[in-house]
Amino acid sequence: MMIAETLYTGFGAWNPIVWLVAFAVAILLAWFIQRLGEPDIPGDGESGKSYISGNDEPSPEDGHIGGSNLYWGFTDAMKGYYARVVPLHTGCLTDYVLWFLGTFALLFIFIGVL
Fold first, then answer.
1. Which among 11, 58, 63, 100 would be 20 to 30 A from 1, CA to CA?
2. Predicted structure pTM score
3. H-helix or E-strand spanning residue 99
């Protein structure tokens, strides 16, 4: 059996050489598109600043949005769930491995019973 032989499945034919050629063409096309871009990086001044709808860029301290503010609606709606789950997250890897093994043990018990 040759490596480049076509594999016929119930969904069509798969030939590894065709896929490698298609992948190489896609890589070359991406490289060509990338080469069409501007090679230089903007320097200091207005051309180097990020565009934020004409507004000045805030300092990193003023622009930081904490996760508690960003996901406030989600966490507030599910505060009953989080009140029970957050104390279980200790940050200790062995605790997470214990939860993982316990969950799989229960899964195997349920699969064995059913």
1. 11
2. 0.34
3. helix 93-113
